[in-house]
Inverse folding.
């Protein structure tokens, strides 16, 4: 807290006699070095081109996160071989240095291995959050500091705003593009160093228009849809390759333990799944309500069995005002990236654990997903954590 207060006082002091540039520094853009994390897509390319056009000392950095040879054959995913090439072309056209860093080992250790192990444990992980947390906003951010950068900019659709206690994280203006769910684990120290120049834009169309104005070859490049190391969204194939034997068969049972059928691996199922169970003709529709990797059982039940009000949360990252532990507080929470925030009561149960009580029950709450906290009726991200299995 002392560091944050010192930062705010410093900013207030320099505002009084020196005008800040667009990135918040009291010096000309030409003397402000910014590392731009470039995935090769249109968003980060526009950020780099725009900042360079404003006269900033831009350095583009692209991460090679997995096997480059294999990546060349796979388009449409971030950080693949084609994307590295596209990022390099943007840097050459605009005229700033660009580097490719081999983070393959870091990425496997920090993201891919946990992804596979989480699925084997019956969870539904979100590797993009771990990549931001452990690779881009940790290792790459450290590299940016080593390059004497004043800040690091990304193409994420989220806003960084200055509040009374320092930098705050807010949802993007365009709710359809908002990526706050994937950035809840950003720490205050990281937030002080990061910049998100696209968060205020009203639509993705504006980003593409800017790319066209800068003459960037990626102006019409499609957005990536898959997790970068999971071709065509086929999680099971990737996990079987990483963890041989992961697809061992087992039983599909109802909530009373009655065997209804068999399956070819727990990793093929997720909480809330209805289709593809292979147990049709049993009356009312059945849904996956629990996965038990220890017994290799998939437990199914009626839709009402999916309804959840109490959500245990671990590994909490808190970037709200004041200490996390204390009285219960009203918040809004998002328990899936595709669902809007909803009202809840947040109760801290430890320094980094909490119980979230949803005011209206939610279906399909799955361990391994994120639970992100927002201020009630506002846009500020207060932090979040990882949904834990219910006991």
């Amino acid at each position: 807290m002392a560091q944050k207060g010192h930062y705010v006082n410093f900013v207030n002091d320099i505002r009084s006699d020196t005008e800040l540039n667009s990135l918040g520094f009291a010096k000309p853009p030409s003397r402000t070095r910014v590392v731009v994390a470039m995935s090769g897509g249109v968003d980060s390319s526009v950020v780099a081109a725009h900042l360079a056009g404003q006269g900033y000392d831009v350095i583009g950095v692209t991460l090679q996160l997995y096997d480059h040879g294999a990546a060349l054959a796979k388009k449409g995913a971030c950080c693949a071989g084609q994307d590295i090439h596209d990022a390099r072309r943007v840097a050459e056209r605009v005229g700033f240095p660009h580097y490719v860093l081999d983070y393959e080992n870091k990425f496997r250790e920090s993201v891919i291995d946990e992804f596979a192990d989480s699925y084997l444990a019956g969870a539904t992980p979100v590797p993009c959050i771990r990549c931001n947390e452990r690779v881009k906003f940790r290792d790459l951010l450290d590299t940016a500091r080593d390059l004497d950068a004043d800040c690091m900019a990304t193409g994420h659709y989220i806003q960084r705003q200055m509040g009374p206690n320092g930098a705050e994280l807010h949802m993007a203006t365009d709710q359809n593009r908002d990526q706050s769910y994937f950035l809840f684990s950003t720490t205050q120290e990281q937030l002080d160093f990061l910049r998100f120049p696209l968060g205020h834009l009203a639509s993705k169309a504006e980003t593409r228009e800017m790319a066209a104005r800068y003459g960037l070859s990626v102006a019409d490049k499609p957005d990536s849809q898959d997790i970068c190391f999971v071709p065509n969204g086929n999680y099971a194939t990737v996990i079987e390759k990483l963890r041989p034997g992961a697809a061992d068969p087992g039983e599909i049972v109802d909530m009373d333990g009655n065997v209804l059928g068999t399956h070819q691996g727990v990793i093929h199922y997720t909480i809330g799944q209805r289709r593809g169970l292979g147990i049709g003709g049993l009356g009312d529709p059945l849904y996956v309500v629990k996965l038990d990797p220890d017994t290799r059982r998939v437990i199914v039940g009626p839709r009402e069995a999916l309804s959840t009000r109490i959500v245990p949360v671990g590994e909490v990252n808190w970037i709200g005002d004041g200490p996390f532990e204390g009285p219960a507080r009203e918040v809004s929470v998002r328990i899936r990236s595709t669902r809007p925030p909803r009202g809840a009561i947040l109760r801290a149960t430890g320094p980094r654990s909490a119980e979230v009580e949803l005011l209206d029950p939610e279906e399909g709450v799955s361990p391994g997903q994120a639970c992100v906290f927002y201020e009630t009726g506002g846009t500020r991200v207060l932090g979040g954590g990882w949904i834990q299995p219910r006991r």
Observations:
- The chain has a mean pLDDT of 89.
